From TrEMBL:
It comes from the Bacteria. GO terms for molecular function: monooxygenase activity. It comes from Lactiplantibacillus songbeiensis. Signal peptide: none annotated. Pfam families: NMO (PF03060). Nitronate monooxygenase that uses molecular oxygen to catalyze the oxidative denitrification of alkyl nitronates. Acts on propionate 3-nitronate (P3N), the presumed physiological substrate. Probably functions in the detoxification of P3N, a metabolic poison produced by plants and fungi as a defense mechanism. The keyword Ribonucleoprotein does not apply. This is Probable nitronate monooxygenase. Keywords: Flavoprotein, FMN, Monooxygenase, Oxidoreductase. The lineage of its organism: Bacteria, Bacillati, Bacillota, Bacilli, Lactobacillales. PANTHER family: 2-NITROPROPANE DIOXYGENASE, 2-NITROPROPANE DIOXYGENASE-LIKE PROTEIN.
Length: 312
Protein backbone atom coordinates (compact mmCIF):
# COMPACT_ATOMS: atom_id res chain seq x y z
CA UNK A 1 0.00 0.00 0.00
CA UNK A 2 1.28 3.48 -0.86
CA UNK A 3 -0.10 7.02 -0.77
CA UNK A 4 -2.10 6.57 -3.98
CA UNK A 5 -3.87 3.39 -2.90
CA UNK A 6 -4.54 4.88 0.54
CA UNK A 7 -5.84 8.14 -0.90
CA UNK A 8 -8.16 6.49 -3.41
CA UNK A 9 -9.18 3.44 -1.39
CA UNK A 10 -8.07 1.00 -4.07
CA UNK A 11 -6.04 -2.21 -4.04
CA UNK A 12 -3.55 -1.45 -6.80
CA UNK A 13 -2.05 1.92 -7.86
CA UNK A 14 -3.55 1.70 -11.35
CA UNK A 15 -5.97 4.25 -12.78
CA UNK A 16 -8.04 3.90 -15.95
CA UNK A 17 -7.81 6.86 -18.30
CA UNK A 18 -10.84 9.12 -18.71
CA UNK A 19 -11.43 8.48 -22.41
CA UNK A 20 -14.36 10.43 -23.84
CA UNK A 21 -17.10 8.12 -25.20
CA UNK A 22 -15.05 5.09 -24.05
CA UNK A 23 -14.87 5.53 -20.26
CA UNK A 24 -18.35 4.24 -19.48
CA UNK A 25 -19.97 3.03 -16.27
CA UNK A 26 -19.38 -0.57 -17.35
CA UNK A 27 -15.66 -0.06 -17.95
CA UNK A 28 -15.20 1.98 -14.77
CA UNK A 29 -16.91 -0.70 -12.70
CA UNK A 30 -14.83 -3.48 -14.26
CA UNK A 31 -11.62 -1.62 -13.45
CA UNK A 32 -12.85 -0.96 -9.90
CA UNK A 33 -13.72 -4.62 -9.41
CA UNK A 34 -10.22 -5.50 -10.63
CA UNK A 35 -8.65 -3.40 -7.88
CA UNK A 36 -7.88 -0.20 -9.79
CA UNK A 37 -9.60 3.16 -10.06
CA UNK A 38 -12.23 3.20 -12.78
CA UNK A 39 -13.30 6.54 -14.23
CA UNK A 40 -16.54 7.66 -15.90
CA UNK A 41 -15.90 10.37 -18.51
CA UNK A 42 -18.39 13.24 -18.22
CA UNK A 43 -17.19 15.21 -21.24
CA UNK A 44 -19.96 15.73 -23.79
CA UNK A 45 -22.61 14.38 -21.40
CA UNK A 46 -25.53 16.09 -19.68
CA UNK A 47 -25.72 16.14 -15.91
CA UNK A 48 -28.51 13.59 -15.93
CA UNK A 49 -26.55 11.30 -18.25
CA UNK A 50 -23.68 11.42 -15.79
CA UNK A 51 -26.04 10.74 -12.90
CA UNK A 52 -27.41 7.70 -14.74
CA UNK A 53 -23.87 6.45 -15.39
CA UNK A 54 -22.96 6.81 -11.71
CA UNK A 55 -26.05 4.89 -10.67
CA UNK A 56 -25.32 2.21 -13.28
CA UNK A 57 -21.75 1.81 -12.03
CA UNK A 58 -23.04 1.38 -8.49
CA UNK A 59 -25.13 -1.59 -9.60
CA UNK A 60 -21.95 -3.20 -10.96
CA UNK A 61 -19.43 -2.49 -8.19
CA UNK A 62 -19.24 -1.57 -4.53
CA UNK A 63 -15.69 -0.27 -4.97
CA UNK A 64 -14.64 3.40 -5.32
CA UNK A 65 -14.68 4.95 -8.79
CA UNK A 66 -14.24 8.48 -10.14
CA UNK A 67 -15.86 10.92 -12.54
CA UNK A 68 -13.71 12.94 -14.93
CA UNK A 69 -14.68 16.59 -15.38
CA UNK A 70 -13.80 18.16 -18.72
CA UNK A 71 -13.76 21.67 -17.34
CA UNK A 72 -14.32 23.50 -20.62
CA UNK A 73 -17.63 21.65 -21.04
CA UNK A 74 -20.58 24.02 -20.40
CA UNK A 75 -22.34 21.30 -18.41
CA UNK A 76 -19.54 21.13 -15.82
CA UNK A 77 -21.27 23.19 -13.06
CA UNK A 78 -24.31 20.92 -13.14
CA UNK A 79 -22.14 17.79 -13.32
CA UNK A 80 -20.12 18.92 -10.28
CA UNK A 81 -23.40 19.17 -8.36
CA UNK A 82 -24.34 15.66 -9.47
CA UNK A 83 -20.96 14.37 -8.28
CA UNK A 84 -21.59 15.95 -4.89
CA UNK A 85 -25.21 14.81 -4.67
CA UNK A 86 -24.27 11.24 -5.59
CA UNK A 87 -21.33 11.23 -3.16
CA UNK A 88 -18.75 10.24 -5.75
CA UNK A 89 -15.49 10.14 -3.76
CA UNK A 90 -13.03 11.17 -6.47
CA UNK A 91 -12.86 13.39 -9.54
CA UNK A 92 -10.14 13.79 -12.12
CA UNK A 93 -10.08 16.97 -14.17
CA UNK A 94 -8.81 18.16 -17.52
CA UNK A 95 -9.12 20.99 -20.06
CA UNK A 96 -8.91 23.79 -17.51
CA UNK A 97 -8.45 24.55 -13.84
CA UNK A 98 -10.75 23.16 -11.13
CA UNK A 99 -10.29 26.38 -9.12
CA UNK A 100 -13.93 27.48 -9.33
CA UNK A 101 -15.17 24.14 -7.99
CA UNK A 102 -12.59 23.36 -5.32
CA UNK A 103 -14.47 24.85 -2.36
CA UNK A 104 -17.63 22.84 -3.06
CA UNK A 105 -15.76 19.63 -3.90
CA UNK A 106 -13.55 19.78 -0.80
CA UNK A 107 -16.53 20.63 1.41
CA UNK A 108 -18.09 17.41 0.11
CA UNK A 109 -14.85 15.49 0.85
CA UNK A 110 -14.24 14.76 -2.85
CA UNK A 111 -10.64 13.97 -3.78
CA UNK A 112 -9.49 16.11 -6.74
CA UNK A 113 -6.85 14.80 -9.18
CA UNK A 114 -6.09 17.13 -12.13
CA UNK A 115 -4.28 15.96 -15.26
CA UNK A 116 -1.28 18.23 -15.79
CA UNK A 117 1.17 18.70 -18.71
CA UNK A 118 4.04 20.51 -16.99
CA UNK A 119 5.69 21.46 -13.69
CA UNK A 120 4.22 24.97 -13.55
CA UNK A 121 0.64 23.72 -13.63
CA UNK A 122 1.40 20.85 -11.24
CA UNK A 123 2.65 23.34 -8.65
CA UNK A 124 -0.44 25.49 -9.14
CA UNK A 125 -2.67 22.48 -8.59
CA UNK A 126 -0.87 21.59 -5.38
CA UNK A 127 -1.25 25.18 -4.13
CA UNK A 128 -4.95 25.00 -5.00
CA UNK A 129 -5.39 22.07 -2.62
CA UNK A 130 -5.59 19.18 -5.08
CA UNK A 131 -4.92 15.76 -3.56
CA UNK A 132 -2.63 14.37 -6.27
CA UNK A 133 -1.65 15.13 -9.85
CA UNK A 134 -1.77 12.97 -12.96
CA UNK A 135 1.19 13.91 -15.16
CA UNK A 136 0.63 12.87 -18.77
CA UNK A 137 3.41 12.84 -21.32
CA UNK A 138 2.87 13.41 -25.03
CA UNK A 139 3.09 9.66 -25.75
CA UNK A 140 -0.47 9.30 -24.48
CA UNK A 141 -3.55 9.05 -26.66
CA UNK A 142 -6.15 11.79 -27.09
CA UNK A 143 -5.34 15.37 -26.12
CA UNK A 144 -1.66 15.75 -25.24
CA UNK A 145 0.94 18.27 -24.13
CA UNK A 146 4.45 18.84 -25.45
CA UNK A 147 6.74 17.06 -22.95
CA UNK A 148 7.67 13.40 -23.07
CA UNK A 149 6.85 11.22 -20.10
CA UNK A 150 10.45 10.41 -19.17
CA UNK A 151 11.21 14.13 -19.00
CA UNK A 152 7.95 15.15 -17.32
CA UNK A 153 7.50 12.58 -14.54
CA UNK A 154 10.73 13.09 -12.55
CA UNK A 155 10.55 16.88 -12.77
CA UNK A 156 7.01 16.92 -11.38
CA UNK A 157 7.95 14.36 -8.73
CA UNK A 158 10.70 16.75 -7.59
CA UNK A 159 8.43 19.82 -7.73
CA UNK A 160 5.41 18.74 -5.66
CA UNK A 161 4.85 16.94 -2.37
CA UNK A 162 1.44 15.46 -3.21
CA UNK A 163 1.34 12.03 -4.90
CA UNK A 164 2.18 11.76 -8.58
CA UNK A 165 0.29 9.42 -10.90
CA UNK A 166 2.17 8.92 -14.17
CA UNK A 167 0.42 8.69 -17.54
CA UNK A 168 1.44 8.56 -21.17
CA UNK A 169 3.15 5.55 -22.72
CA UNK A 170 2.47 2.85 -20.11
CA UNK A 171 1.55 -0.44 -21.75
CA UNK A 172 3.15 -3.11 -19.59
CA UNK A 173 4.97 -3.75 -16.33
CA UNK A 174 8.16 -2.18 -17.65
CA UNK A 175 6.34 1.11 -18.16
CA UNK A 176 4.87 0.89 -14.68
CA UNK A 177 8.27 0.30 -13.07
CA UNK A 178 9.77 3.11 -15.15
CA UNK A 179 7.12 5.48 -13.79
CA UNK A 180 7.77 4.41 -10.21
CA UNK A 181 11.53 4.87 -10.64
CA UNK A 182 10.81 8.39 -11.93
CA UNK A 183 8.98 9.22 -8.71
CA UNK A 184 5.37 8.24 -9.41
CA UNK A 185 3.26 6.36 -6.86
CA UNK A 186 0.66 5.23 -9.37
CA UNK A 187 0.03 4.95 -13.09
CA UNK A 188 -2.81 5.83 -15.41
CA UNK A 189 -3.39 3.74 -18.55
CA UNK A 190 -5.74 4.65 -21.37
CA UNK A 191 -4.97 2.64 -24.49
CA UNK A 192 -4.70 -0.64 -22.55
CA UNK A 193 -8.18 -0.17 -21.08
CA UNK A 194 -9.68 1.22 -24.30
CA UNK A 195 -9.70 -2.30 -25.73
CA UNK A 196 -10.62 -4.11 -22.52
CA UNK A 197 -13.49 -6.51 -23.05
CA UNK A 198 -15.77 -4.24 -20.99
CA UNK A 199 -15.00 -1.22 -23.17
CA UNK A 200 -17.79 -0.05 -25.51
CA UNK A 201 -15.55 -0.05 -28.61
CA UNK A 202 -16.08 -2.63 -31.31
CA UNK A 203 -13.94 -5.33 -32.85
CA UNK A 204 -12.52 -3.05 -35.56
CA UNK A 205 -11.19 -0.57 -32.96
CA UNK A 206 -9.67 -3.41 -30.94
CA UNK A 207 -8.09 -4.95 -34.03
CA UNK A 208 -6.62 -1.59 -35.09
CA UNK A 209 -4.90 -1.19 -31.71
CA UNK A 210 -3.69 -4.80 -31.52
CA UNK A 211 -2.26 -4.61 -35.04
CA UNK A 212 -0.61 -1.21 -34.47
CA UNK A 213 3.15 -0.83 -34.59
CA UNK A 214 5.47 1.68 -32.97
CA UNK A 215 4.82 4.10 -35.85
CA UNK A 216 1.05 3.72 -36.20
CA UNK A 217 0.01 6.85 -34.29
CA UNK A 218 0.05 10.44 -35.48
CA UNK A 219 -0.38 13.79 -33.71
CA UNK A 220 -3.00 16.04 -35.31
CA UNK A 221 -3.98 19.58 -34.28
CA UNK A 222 -0.67 20.95 -33.03
CA UNK A 223 -0.82 24.09 -35.17
CA UNK A 224 -4.15 25.13 -33.64
CA UNK A 225 -2.97 24.44 -30.07
CA UNK A 226 -5.10 21.33 -29.69
CA UNK A 227 -2.76 18.41 -30.33
CA UNK A 228 -4.26 14.92 -30.15
CA UNK A 229 -2.67 11.52 -30.73
CA UNK A 230 -4.62 8.94 -32.72
CA UNK A 231 -4.10 5.97 -34.99
CA UNK A 232 -3.35 6.91 -38.57
CA UNK A 233 -6.29 6.16 -40.88
CA UNK A 234 -8.38 7.95 -43.50
CA UNK A 235 -10.06 10.16 -40.89
CA UNK A 236 -6.72 11.22 -39.42
CA UNK A 237 -5.59 12.21 -42.92
CA UNK A 238 -8.79 14.26 -43.37
CA UNK A 239 -8.21 16.04 -40.06
CA UNK A 240 -4.64 16.80 -41.05
CA UNK A 241 -5.89 18.45 -44.26
CA UNK A 242 -8.55 20.34 -42.30
CA UNK A 243 -5.97 21.63 -39.83
CA UNK A 244 -3.80 22.94 -42.67
CA UNK A 245 -6.55 25.12 -44.16
CA UNK A 246 -6.43 26.52 -41.35
CA UNK A 247 -9.65 26.32 -39.35
CA UNK A 248 -10.82 27.40 -35.93
CA UNK A 249 -10.31 25.13 -32.94
CA UNK A 250 -14.09 24.86 -32.63
CA UNK A 251 -14.51 23.62 -36.20
CA UNK A 252 -11.60 21.22 -35.85
CA UNK A 253 -12.85 19.84 -32.54
CA UNK A 254 -16.36 19.41 -33.89
CA UNK A 255 -15.00 17.31 -36.76
CA UNK A 256 -12.85 15.29 -34.37
CA UNK A 257 -15.79 14.68 -32.01
CA UNK A 258 -17.94 13.43 -34.87
CA UNK A 259 -15.14 11.08 -35.89
CA UNK A 260 -14.73 9.81 -32.32
CA UNK A 261 -18.42 9.01 -31.97
CA UNK A 262 -18.31 7.21 -35.30
CA UNK A 263 -15.36 5.10 -34.18
CA UNK A 264 -16.88 4.19 -30.81
CA UNK A 265 -20.54 3.78 -31.65
CA UNK A 266 -20.32 2.58 -35.25
CA UNK A 267 -16.98 0.77 -34.98
CA UNK A 268 -15.69 2.67 -38.00
CA UNK A 269 -11.93 2.14 -38.00
CA UNK A 270 -11.45 3.95 -41.31
CA UNK A 271 -13.51 7.14 -41.06
CA UNK A 272 -13.56 7.29 -37.27
CA UNK A 273 -11.09 8.82 -34.81
CA UNK A 274 -9.31 6.14 -32.78
CA UNK A 275 -7.47 7.88 -29.97
CA UNK A 276 -4.45 5.78 -29.03
CA UNK A 277 -1.14 6.22 -27.31
CA UNK A 278 2.14 5.48 -29.02
CA UNK A 279 2.34 2.45 -26.73
CA UNK A 280 -0.22 0.64 -28.91
CA UNK A 281 2.62 -1.24 -30.57
CA UNK A 282 3.18 -3.12 -27.29
CA UNK A 283 -0.43 -4.28 -26.96
CA UNK A 284 -1.13 -7.66 -28.54
CA UNK A 285 -4.40 -8.79 -27.00
CA UNK A 286 -7.73 -7.48 -25.69
CA UNK A 287 -8.42 -8.78 -22.18
CA UNK A 288 -10.90 -8.19 -19.36
CA UNK A 289 -10.02 -5.10 -17.32
CA UNK A 290 -9.20 -7.16 -14.24
CA UNK A 291 -6.75 -9.27 -16.28
CA UNK A 292 -5.08 -6.10 -17.58
CA UNK A 293 -4.52 -4.96 -14.00
CA UNK A 294 -3.20 -8.32 -12.87
CA UNK A 295 -0.79 -8.52 -15.80
CA UNK A 296 0.58 -5.05 -15.07
CA UNK A 297 1.10 -5.90 -11.42
CA UNK A 298 2.64 -9.32 -12.11
CA UNK A 299 5.05 -7.95 -14.69
CA UNK A 300 6.04 -5.00 -12.53
CA UNK A 301 6.59 -7.15 -9.43
CA UNK A 302 8.64 -9.64 -11.43
CA UNK A 303 10.91 -6.87 -12.69
CA UNK A 304 11.34 -5.38 -9.23
CA UNK A 305 12.06 -8.76 -7.66
CA UNK A 306 14.27 -10.37 -10.26
CA UNK A 307 15.84 -7.99 -12.76
CA UNK A 308 19.51 -7.18 -12.33
CA UNK A 309 20.98 -4.18 -14.14
CA UNK A 310 24.76 -4.02 -14.56
CA UNK A 311 26.22 -0.60 -15.12
CA UNK A 312 29.85 -1.64 -15.42
Amino acid sequence: MNRVTQLLGIQYPIVQGAMQEVATAELAAAVANGGGLGIIAAGGKTAEEVRAAIKKARTLTDKPFAVNLMLMDPNTPAIVQVVIDEKVPIVTTGAGTPKNYMADLKAAHVKVLPVVPNVKIAKKMEALGCDAVIAEGMEGGGHIGTLTSQVLWPQIADAVSIPLIAAGGIGDGRGMVSAMVAGAEGVQCGTLFSIAQESPVGDQWRQAVVEATDSSTVVIGSTIRDASRMLMNHKAEELSVLEAQPVSRETFNDAMSVGLRSAVHEDDATDGVIFSGAVAGLIKEAKPAAAVIQQLMTEAEDIINHQTIELS
